[in-house]
Write a structure and sequence with these properties.
single chain; about 270 residues; alpha+beta; 4 helices; 9 strands; about 40% helix; about 25% strand
Length: about 270
């Protein structure tokens, strides 16, 4: 049945149609990947802080991880230690300072700056003592800006100022001279180490790619159409064969009826 010329021709046509549908599906899939929107990692080019983020609100997704530069003055008595901070897999202490900078409108703004990492509390405290003794003068600060972290309840109840996260709100309550002053809802990880502290490892965010799901849906449709073309050919051949079998059965039944009738008449004559 399937070897008849017309069904072989129909099979060739169905295969060609399926190949065309499969090619269209592959094209749609390639379009989905090519047109995927890549979430670009922040540039490693250092940009002015004023053009990246503004105080008084959360920073944008585009700003997260950007290297920024600004001029600020560290307040000597406002250093805070954060324990349990990992630095390339090692747990230790961050030294976080309070820097004041002048905004574009001339107002003073506060910014939290993670200045460095120490492997133990003694080293961190020693670094804080040295940093607090430095003259209070403006300096250029370069680092990666990151969003504010959620504050945690101190594990040591005897030390209510103990911190593990860079919660700007909690830091603001500990800083001096900030009443009525705006503050960035973010912090900067200072690039490079400072005296007595290791540099904090702060890599740029990893770029992600978003696939175009509409093109993927179309690609799946073309693959289904390709399969349907082959199935349609198979179904047509099967239906044709079933119809031929039915016709053949009817013909055989009709051909058998006269013989059965003649046999019955002969039998009746003998009885008489």
């Amino acid at each position: 049945m399937m070897l008849r010329p017309r069904w072989i021709g129909a099979l060739v046509f169905a295969l060609a149609l399926a190949a065309g549908f499969a090619a269209l599906g592959q094209w749609q899939l390639e379009r989905a990947i090519e047109s995927g929107k890549a979430v670009e990692a922040p540039s490693e080019t250092v940009l002015p802080l004023a053009g990246i983020a503004q105080p008084g609100g959360p920073i944008t997704d585009k700003a997260v991880g950007q290297l920024v530069e600004f001029t600020g003055t560290f307040v000597p008595g406002d250093y805070q230690l954060l324990n349990g901070r990992l630095n390339e897999g090692r747990s230790g202490w961050w030294v976080v300072g309070h820097a004041n900078l002048t905004a574009s409108d001339g107002t003073e703004v506060a910014m939290a700056v993670a200045r460095g990492w120490a492997p133990d509390e003694a080293t961190a405290k020693s670094a804080v003592a040295r940093l607090a003794a430095e003259p209070e003068s403006p300096m250029s600060i370069v680092g990666r800006i990151l969003p504010d972290e959620q504050p945690e309840v101190p594990q040591d109840k005897s030390d209510p100022t103990q911190m593990r996260t860079v919660g700007v709100g909690a830091l603001y309550n500990l800083w001096t001279g900030v009443d009525g002053m705006d503050v960035y809802s973010a912090y900067v990880v200072q690039r490079g180490g400072v005296d007595g502290l290791d540099a904090i490892y702060s890599p740029p965010p990893i770029a992600e790619t978003e696939l175009n799901w509409l093109n993927i849906f179309y690609a799946a449709e073309w693959i289904i159409f390709a399969g349907f073309a082959i199935f349609l050919w198979y179904r047509l051949v099967k239906d044709a064969k079933e119809r031929e079998d039915e016709i053949r059965s009817l013909e055989e039944a009709v051909a058998a009826e006269p013989s059965e009738g003649a046999g019955s008449s002969a039998a009746a004559g003998k009885v008489e």
